[in-house]
Amino acid sequence: MVSLPKADIVLRNGPVYLGLKEGYATAVALWAGKVLATGSAAELEPLIGPNTRVLDLAGRMATPGLYEAHLHLLPLGLTMKELDIRPRFVRTLDGLLEMIAAAAAKAKPGEWVLARGYDHFELDVKRHPHRTELDRAAPNNPVYIVRACGHLSVANSLALKLAGVDETTPVPPGGAIEQVNGTLTGLMAENGRDPIKKVIPDPTDEELVAAIERAGLYCNQFGITSVMDAAVGMRSQYREVAAYRTAKRTGRLPVRTNMCLLGGHNGIVSQAYADGLVTGAGDAWLSVGPVKIFTDGSAGGRTAAMSEPYLGEPETNGIFCLEDSEMDGLTRDYHAMGYQLAVHAIGDAAIEQTLNAMEKALHDHPDPKRRHRIEHCGFNTKEQIARMVRLGIEPVPQPIFHYDFGDLYLAVLEPERVHPAYPMRDWIAAGLKPAASSDAPVCDANIWPNIYTMITRKTARGTVIGPDQTLTIDEAICAYTEFGAFVNRCENHRGRLLPGMAADVAVFSRDLSQATPEQLLHETRCDMTILDGKIVFEAEA
Length: 541
Known about the structure:
Radius of gyration: 23 Å
Shape: globular
Low-confidence stretches: none
Largest sheet: 7 strands, parallel
Number of strands: 21
Structural class: alpha/beta
Distance between the termini: 42 Å
Strand content: 15-25%
């Protein structure tokens, strides 16, 4: 008979979600950063010693620590210090301009005013702010505001001047710089924003580390213990890799992090590869994940590449960030170098381009276990789903997009194209493992709207989109745990509460399986987060 050590922590007297196939226990014991045993309170009683901390769940649910499979951790931390202009805070153009004016009044002349999160669909004027309106709000400061999706931005005149952008500036491939009647509006999309990005002052090394720490601690509040930063290098190039290394070395990395390296023309892959940073390098705290390629934009911004035009705009099919030959070449090269790929593709045309490139790469260098990913994968077809299954390619969606942007989708696309979007049920039925995520700071890292939408398919306004794609609460938890671990290639270490796996646990304020969707959305919280067997977050009583 095997003699087990005494546990460091025992959680008991509540539902303990082990995994989708494993079901539930009523107690779990943790020791030395691993799950020691699961079972009933009586079965785990012998594992309790004088130094064991026994936590009474009192009917509350414990799950594996959540895996946020796609967010931008470092940018989230940076934006938490920027002006927050999300619809929850401002829904009128005048109100938005007042916020910018107030921020400019506190800034020194010439200091940048950066803001994130507006949604033109939610503003009273139903349009993007204009360059001249930002000028009036902040006449002495460059202003750059980013739409919620992260794919469109508006700059004021001073910001455009500093970037060297005027009416004669060539529009780069895969981008847009809007003019109306020969005059810049300030609206820019995709690669068209590069000149602005180059002149925004870089954060210091300390600011980068502080951003990682700030965002990671925020994630802990929701039971999130693992994340994939979905484009390391996007703001400060290779310095971001150094910032993650510093954060880990100095104890300022609050979540296990898989670094997805930015690829493409502004990427860091060449330097990373020379430094030995290929997929799988690192350890359970900080590892190298896939390479990120952007192929299109966002559906709400009408820049996601679609096979059919947007509603009411027969000339608009979105934006391809890359030509087919460029996409094929990057995919082939990164695949041959040994990288997993995580390709941003939202529209069906972008997904088709991605699948074509991945299929060619896999044909040239077969690797059925590479586990390439399509990030978002919003508006895919049934034929594309079948192709993904055949090629071993996983979707990494954000169900919360329906909650935050679903009504906007219905304003820019026909209902028959919107209702099957982000088809969680179809993906799972096909044998795929769609990992739930938020894309923060595009959406909030708050897990509850995501879970709510997975089980209801309701938008924030209550509109039901594709009710046949709803999941059970157990499936939703699985999408946030086991599937997240799977697409990040660590399913043997994280994502379930089985003996020998990581002692990463989230404790919620109620039994999630017994709550209504509205209770989950409005009345449920994470009470405790345990990471590597240590309590890293406890909610205030």
